[in-house]
Amino acid sequence: VQPVESGGGLVRAGGSLRLSCAAAGSTFDDYAVGWFRQAPGKGREGVACISIDDFTTAYKDSVKGRFTISRDNAKNTVYLQMNSLKPEDTAVYYCKAGGRYWGQGTQVTVSS
Asked: Residue 64 gets which letter from DSSP?
């Protein structure tokens, strides 16, 4: 499966964005999916993840209450709704399926 991210962009602090991760050439039905991010000069970190079948979710502490991960298996897409964005959320956001399939990333920039 090849994850393909979209939805990044430039937004002011306090604004919202919704990222999408589509499964190109396959489906996410058999995979847990996670969102990761990498800020300039920093390592890649996990942001949120969602399980295969019972839709269990988990979040990095700093995004709890602001970000929501969801999946629509009928559309083969996983979403990351990001609200109340902060400048420190600026990063390239990546989708990862099944613990090994990475997308190419989408840039999110939050201005102060």
From this structure: T
Dist CA 1 CA 15 (whole Å): 32
Q: Return the pLDDT at 25.
A: 83
User: What is the CB neighbour count within 10 angstroms for residue 61?
Assistant: 6
What CA–CA distances, in Å, run from 91 to 21, 30, 80, 106? 16, 28, 14, 8
Question: Tokens 């995004």, residue?
Answer: 63
Q: Distance (Å, rounded) from C-alpha 22 to C-alpha 77?
A: 4
| Mean pLDDT of all residues in 72-85 | 95
What's the CA gap between 99 and 69, in Å, rounded?
16
pLDDT of residue 73: 87
